Amino acid sequence: MAEAHQAVAFQFTVTPEGIDLQLSHQALSEIYLSGVRSWKKRVIRLKNNVITGVYPASPSSWLFVVIAILATMYTRSDPSMGLIAKIQEHLPVSQSMSSQCQAVLSAVLFSTMLWLLLIFTMRLCLKQLLSYHRWMFEQHGKMSNTTKVWVVSVNFFTTARFILYFTCFLTTFSLGNRLQWYLKLKSLWAANYVSDWWEEYVYLRGRSPIMVNSNYYGMDFLFVTPTPIQSARAGNSIHSFFLYRRKLNKEEIKPSRIPGTVIPLCAAQCERIFHTTRIPGEETDTVQHWQDSDYIVVYHKGRYFRLRVYQAGRLLSPREIEFQIQRILDDPAAPSKGEAHLGALTAGDRIPWAKARTKFFSTGLNKRSLDCIEKAAFFVTLDDDEQGMMGDDPAASLDNYAKNLLHGKCYDRWFDKSFSVVFYKNGKCGINAEHSWADAPVLAHVWEYALATDSFQLGYNTEGHCKGEVDSSLPKPQKLNWEITPECEEQISQSLDVAQKLADDIDFHVFSFQEFGKGKVKKCRVSPDAFIQMCLQLAYFREQNNFCLTYEASMTRLFREGRTETVRSCSNESSAFVRAPDVCRRLLRAASEKHQLLYRMAMTGGGIDRHLFCLYVVSKYLGVESPFLKEVLSEPWRLSTSQTGVQQVELFDLVNHPEYISCGGGFGPVADDGYGVSYSLIGDNMINFHISCKHSCPQTDAHKFGSQIKKALHDIINLLSGAQPEPKKPEAGRPEVKKDQ
User: Where exactly are the transmembrane stretches of this chain (predicted)?
Assistant: First the structure.
């Protein structure tokens, strides 16, 4: 077979005259070019390591210091105060070297030490500057003198661009006086006293399915589809992902910053975006990351294909990737026995998957095929369904779109991959991501780049195909083969049953609220995020007639390897506002200000939940029972919320092309009797909501809760603007979505 021939470097046969070697020049050429590419990447990494290692200085600054010291020496002055002479006395050099050469060499050594000392001092100063967070708590327009000095100092140190991965190494958590000695001890040798335990105990040790319970999704453009051709959309998008990876490897991605500031966010999570897979284990999973991969794995109609995206050392053009994707779509081969539902193993419980992986996929053909999937840059699904906002009921179709992205058919995604991109028959696409390796903003950054590059940089021809020419001699994508035993098929079937029941229980409602947005909220001098959170509190109380523990995720990437902290949105102030017989503007502002304070504290290391979590972990290690910690950490989050913001606004033209914007993304409910709510504020006049819950809980309904959220949005904005609340209209929620479309 042609595919098998491409997979080996040479063949040999035994003849009467001896062994006859038949070298495959194409395969050897591929090996050579792969090595060249690998060495190029090593050189780039070495260069970036040098530049990062001397930041905030630059390699050229070393030459400046050397020349300056040598110049002062030739003016008969000694800037080293005798140190150069001392160095010269102890130089282990040959007697043949002249005294002048020895003096120059000593001056160079002194200059180098002085340069390194300056770098260390500048780093120390920058670290201390970036540990200052009081500016977050000051009112707009009322900057203290301390903060003014801090701004000038930070601007001085950040005149040069921040190096992407250097932002990982600037600050560490400031631990409170109450922190026990063992956490202080951990902070001395660990980069972050929270993140490694958070990844292990919250994500990797979970034994229930990661589909729905952990993975999350991101949507395509809401109102437009750049091309209706499935293979063309895949060609541009896949090419865009690899362009991003190239920029990432060269550290050319601009570090994310706090909006409106020069303060960088830690980029450590970016290292595991590509060629990363969660590996199942019986007690705990692990995250495996490989340094490089020149291919992706594509799923279509129950079959898995290996698609190389590099040929002769170059990245395939979008048109060539489209050509290869179309080959897969047109391939008539049937799935191997047991192959069609194989992905269900990643959707079911983790222990059965771990045992099956060890028993059926640890040797031979199955191991080689599984390795191919796990080491791929990322995973692609070619879906035969059509999705998006369409048809006679666009609101319902949007709900179905969200559900499909979250769990699909339960076997047509590889939920263990860092991320899987789904391309639908009508040209729509979306993304599903595993959660343990990074948080949503990291993947959203990649997704924004891919969407913008696809539409605004690469584009399509008049027929909807990718631009460019095709090299028809490209080797065909290689179909992966499997040897699935009846026992393994039985385990696949059991995992699929578990996953299907979970997927069928999920109730989803997605809507785009466009009657006003953050622009109007800001004019009322209220934080848009606090405004949304107060709306959620009011909506939940109206529906359930009680309050619940509310989780809002806040990033802690101001700190090295920081991930998230919890903002407890249900506060005494928010409860007082919601309980008021007549809604009160004063109580609303007090609740909003308290929420903003809690959010700022969470961002700057003043939250309590991760601290309590770490104390609980240590208590388990020591075998000490703490009823307080056990009770606090076992309370259910019946309202779990998260905001997804647009990070790279410059990539999108929301003025001239407001339709080119993603609808955001969402996740499953955290509690069986609760809601999961993701929201994104797009531009000044749009707020998108993704609401999830479970059909099995009679107290929750995603559509009813969505209607309550819309009513709360109107009531609170009317309160802030001084208008009278609008009378309640029956079934106001769903027709609004239709009207907006």
Answer: 50-74, 103-126, 147-166
Nearest C-alpha neighbor of 406 from the set 702, 708, 732: 702
pLDDT at 9: 40
- Category of 338 on φ-ψ map: left (φ > 0), alpha (ψ -120 to 50) or beta: left
The helices-and-strands tally (H runs, E runs) of the chain is 23, 20
Mean pLDDT of 423-445: 95
The span from the CA of 470 to the CA of 467, in Å, is 10
Q: pLDDT for 506-536, tens place per residue?
A: 999 999 999 999 999 999 999 999 999 999 9
Closest CA to 377 of 412, 335, 407, 421: 421
Stated pTM of the model: 0.80
- State the catalytic residues: 435
Scan for tokens 């609760």, then name that residue.
674
380, β-bridge pairs: 298, 421
Q: Cβ distance 457 to 450 under 8 Å?
A: no
Dmax over CA atoms of the chain, in Å, equals: 100
Centre a 10 Å sphere on the Cβ of residue 248 and count the other Cβ atoms it contains. 19
Q: What is the pLDDT of residue 11?
A: 42
- Residue 245 and residue 274 in contact, taking contact as beta carbons nearer than 8 Å: yes
Joined tokens for residue 441: 């903003």
CB 298 within 8 A of CB 442: no
Least confident span in 75-79, 331-335, 573-577: 75-79
Distance from the Cα of residue 27 to its chain's centroid: 36
Residue 411: phi and psi, rounded to 5, are -135, -5
Give the C-alpha separation, 171 to 728, whole Å. Answer: 51
Q: How far, in whole angstroms, is CA 628 from its chain's centroid? A: 33
**Residue pLDDT, tens place only, 380-431:** 999 999 999 888 888 999 999 999 999 999 999 999 999 999 999 999 999 9
Q: Are 607 and 562 in contact (CB under 8 A)?
A: no
Rounded to an integer, what distance in angstroms lies between the CA atom of residue 429 and that of residue 441?
Answer: 19
Distance CA 530, CA 224 (A): 31
